[in-house]
Amino acid sequence: MTILHPTIADVTDRIRHRSRETRAAYLELIRSRRPDGFARMKMTEGNLAHASAGCAVMEKSELLGGGWPNIGIITSYNDMLSAHAPFEGYPDIIRRAAREVGAIAQVAGGVPAMCDGVTQGQEGMELSLFSRDVIAMSSAIGLSHDVFDAALHLGVCDKIVPGLVIAALRFGWIPSVFVPAGPMPSGLPNPEKVRIRQLFAEGKVGREELLRAEAESYHTQGTCTFYGTANSNQMLMEVMGFHLPGAAFTNPGTPLREALTRAATARAAEITAQGEDYRPAGELIDERSIVNGIVGLMATGGSTNHALHIPAMAAAAGIQVSLEDFADISAVTPLLARIYPNGPSDVNHFHAAGGMSFLVRELLGAGLMHGDAEGVAGPISGYDREPVFEDGTLVWRSAPSHSADLDILRPASDPFSRDGGLRLMDGRLGRGVSKVSAVKPANRVLEAPAIVFDTQGALKAAFEAGHLDRDFVAVVRFQGPAANGMPELHGLTPVLGILQDRGHKVALVTDGRMSGASGKIPSAIHMSPEAARGGPLARVRDGDMIAFDSEKGTLDVKVDDATFLAREPAQFRPNASAMGLGREMFSYFRQMAGTADTGASQFAFLGEGS
Question: Least packed by Cβ within 10 Å: which of 102, 108, 403, 452?
């Protein structure tokens, strides 16, 4: 039996100790709601008549008679998101699969699912992070009918899966299985896409060529194939145990994808409280599950957005996670995958090289994962398998013994890097994170004067005017949740990349988000406390020398304390950013958002029982 790495054991223990009161209150809540029989049987006749009125005759009969478990479907289907369009036909597949195993399935509700790819750099991106909590609340509306014995959650992309997880955990007495749709087939190679974007930023190609490259990259149904938040979500759901093994990266529209959806339905019917293998979501997901998720994130170079989402998801189950936990796990977790933006290959190449089953087996073998943590399909020690057809039947086989491409996926004994590439950045400018897995070592440490911007548009304008051809640290402030909803700042990547390619030492410090797309640019993001709430970035001035060291995790301003603290903080002036496109409807969210280092959530779950 593999011995758990001491750091992984220590971090798990301190999370468990830190969370003992909130976790106990949470478990008391969900255990008090464990059903004695089928959930709908506590309803009045009128309640039950309404719950079954829209069903086909067969389902109505079974709902009224109470003989079969009822599976609630929470779906994020819409036909604008490529990743979510395949969900259109899932309810029919699920209903048929449920009948075959003696269960019923109903769409309990739909949730909004906005596309960060559409809103990137646009005003609508200011609602993106808040959509996570709206999704959690929308899921709660569907599940609040309280007639479900299990739930299937259909979601893939950025804020959608974390929102669904938060709701699944708040209804933690219900077993929940997450059902993905899979990535689109590979399109234009990522390095070529990046090359065209930079040429466009320099004015060397026109909009027509840029649009052609983008359309060839994002070309059909399925998740975008780069390793951003959406595909990091799918990895997380697998290593945390919410998926069936190997469900994450099977392409949509294939027989295997449909078979996995049918199998997820059958499994949901098996793990209800009325069966012999009850697996309520809130007890399935515990401190070990959260640590496994962070390990998977570090081993794959996943999205930094999960430094926001994992604490928020964990808090929904009474578990308290800190940025120190991320940093300490990163320090001992080897980087085993290089997927764009950390390398040229996409998630389809990763899947073909060995994918999740190989990754899980390597992490288990290195003592970096809790194999005894539970998943919907059994212990995580059994998630080192991949789904295949044998004589037309879905079965799971052992992970491949070797990576099919060592440029994409490596064993733990020969990693790309000895650590996971995520640093806690801490110092006089606040606390945040830096993703260094795609940053060359020579670019991870620099000292340069600050140039302060209050919007990403102002930085782009300065670049276009030729004012940025020099070494500098871009301080882009007033981008946190309380200011404007913490939009992603992907539009800065091509600009800063061009300046770095010209030989300049550049870095980004911001209280906003960059996801995984910061790529080769040294960045300290999610800085907290944010400038709009009087954080240190509000006192930085043009010309202040900034010492940026993502190797040591330090971020300092070379101004003496007395002078720095005596400065009047710059004031955030919302102006247009608070109005239009529905943004005025989210003023409460901006006021009530938590700090970035605790997940930037609306929900104060850490006060369980108060």
Answer: 102
Helices 287-300 and 306-316 cross at an angle (nearest 10°) of: 170
Tell me if residue 449 falls in helix, strand or coil.
strand
Helix, strand, coil shares, percent, the chain, to 5: 45, 15, 40
Mean pLDDT for the chain overall: 93
Place of tokens 């008090």: 32
Q: How many residues does the chain have?
A: 610
Cβ atoms of 207 and 215 within 8 Å: the answer is no
> What DSSP line would sit under 154-176, residue for residue?
E--STTHHHHHHHHHHHTTTS-E
- CB distance 51 to 70 below 8 Å: no
Residue 453 burial class via C-beta count within 10 angstroms: exposed 0-12, middle 13-18, buried 19 and up: buried
Distances (CA, A) of 583 to 199, 551, 586, 590: 33, 38, 5, 10
C-alpha 164/C-alpha 230 separation (Å) is: 13
Question: Which amino acid is it at 415?
Answer: P
pLDDT band for position 323 (cuts 50, 70, 90): very high
* 555 φ, ψ (degrees, to nearest 5): -145, 115
Q: If residue 472 lies in a helix (H) or strand (E), which one and from where to where?
A: strand 472-476
75 and 112 Cβ atoms separated by less than 8 Å? no
Which whole number is the average pLDDT over 241-247? 98
The 10s digit of each residue's pLDDT in 512-553 is 998 655 578 999 999 999 999 999 999 999 999 999 999 999
Other residues' Cβ atoms within 10 Å of the Cβ of residue 283: 18
- pLDDT of residue 507 exceeding 50, the answer is yes
- What is the number of other CB atoms lying within 10 angstroms of the CB of residue 393? 8
Q: Looking at 185-286, list the stretches that DSSP marks H as alpha helix, in order from N- to C-terminal side.
A: 190-201, 207-217, 229-240, 255-270, 281-284
On whether the CB atoms of residues 146 and 39 are closer than 8 A, the answer is yes
Rounded CA-CA distance 566/574 in Å is 24
Residues sharing a CB contact under 8 Å with residue 368, sequence separation 6 or more, in sequence order: 5, 8, 295, 299, 332, 333, 412
Burial of 53 (0-12, 13-18, 19+ CB in 10 A): exposed
d(CA 488, CA 535): 19
Quote the tokens at residue 378. 């059994």
Q: Which candidate, 102, 292, 163, places its Cα nearest to that of 153?
A: 163
Task: In whole angstroms, give the CA distance from residue 174 to residue 430.
Answer: 40
Residue 237 near residue 250 (C-beta atoms within 8 A): no
Which strand (E) or helix (H) includes residue 57? helix 57-65
CB 504 within 8 A of CB 471: yes
Put residue 453 in one of left, alpha, beta given phi > 0 → left and psi -120 to 50 → alpha.
Answer: beta
Q: Which residue has the tokens 């120190």?
A: 324
